[in-house]
Design a protein that fits this description.
Elements: H1 2-10, H2 12-31, H3 37-72, H4 90-144, H5 149-174, E1 181-185, H6 186-196, H7 198-203, E2 207-210, E3 216-220, H8 221-237, E4 243-249, E5 252-257, H9 277-283, H10 290-301, E6 304-310, E7 314-320
Parallel strand pairs: 2-4
Antiparallel strand pairs: 1-3, 4-5, 5-7, 6-7
Helix pairs in contact: 4-5, 6-8, 8-10
Amino acid sequence: MRRLKAFLFERRVLYGMYVVFWGLIYLTTFLHDASFVPIWDSLLFTLFVLAVYSIVSFYRFSRKQQQLELLATKDLQVSNLLFLPKAETLAEETYQQTLQVVLEKKNQQQEELQQKQKAMMDDFGLWLHQIKTPVAALDLVIQSGQLDPRTMKNEVFKINEYLQMILNYMRQHLDQTDFVFQQLSIEAIVKTVVKKYATFFSQKNLSLQLQQLEGTVYSDQKWLIFILEQVIFNGIKYTENGTITISFMKNQLTIQDTGIGIRSEDLPRVFEKGYTGINGREQQRASGLGLYLSQQAAEKLGCRILIDSEVNRGTTVTIIFPEEIPAFE
C-alpha cells in the first residue's frame, strides 16, 4: 500500500492532467450541444490505455524500489552501483553519476585514513622500541640492588623525554593549528634546552661552547624547542668526552659535536622514519623517530635542517630559519 501511494503521488501530475483534459472536452461538448456518445467511447478507450500504462509502470516502479531498498541495507560501495536500477530519465542518470563521485571520494578518504592509521601504528611501534631501553635499564638497576639515585634519575628523565616525544607526535598529526609564530630570542631558547640536559653534560664529561647567539627568529617556541632537544640530545648520546658547540649567524643555528659521526651512506636517510643507521643499530639508542619528527616540524615552521658529518670527527646540524613568518595552511 505504501508503494502504491508513492507511485500515485509521483504521477499525480499525469493523472491530474488526464482529469483536466477530459473535463475540458466534456465542457466543450456541452457548450456546443454535441453528442456525448463518441466522447464516452473515447473516454473508455483512454481509460483502458491509462490502466495498462499504470499497471506496467507500477510493476517497474515496484522492482526499482525493491532494488533500492536492498542496496540501502548494505554498505554502499562503488562496486554496488552496478546493481542500481537503470536510469530512465536524465535526472536519475545525473543522480547516479553524483552518487558515484561521492562514493569514489569516500573510498579515497577511507584508504587515506587507513594508511594514516597504519603509519601511526608503525610509528608507535618504533616509539615503544625506544622507550623500552631506559625502562629496561631502570629495571636492571632495581634488580641489582645498587640504587644509584643519579642513574635512576637519568633513566626516568629519558622515559619522560620519550613520553613527551610521542605527545608531540600526536599533536603534530592530530592538531594542525598548534602553531603560534612570534619573535624569539635564540639565546634564550638555546639556554633553556641546554639547561634541561645539564646533568648529561656533567655525567659524560662533555664541554659546552655557546658562541655567537645574539639574534631573533620568527618561529613557534614549543616546536622550536622540540627540534633543538632532539638535535642536542642526539649530540650528547653519540659524543664521549668531547665538545658540543652552538652558534647562530645570519638566520642559521649550528649545533656541532665531536662525536662518532654518521657514515656517508647513512646521511641521505637520517630523516627517514624508522631509519637508525649503523650507529643506532649497534648501540641500540635510537628508534628513528627523533630526526623524522624534527624534520616534519621544521617544514611546518618554514625551516630547513641540514646535516654534515664525518665518522669519528663529529656531526654538524644547521637549522636555517625563514626571514618572515611562513604561510601555514
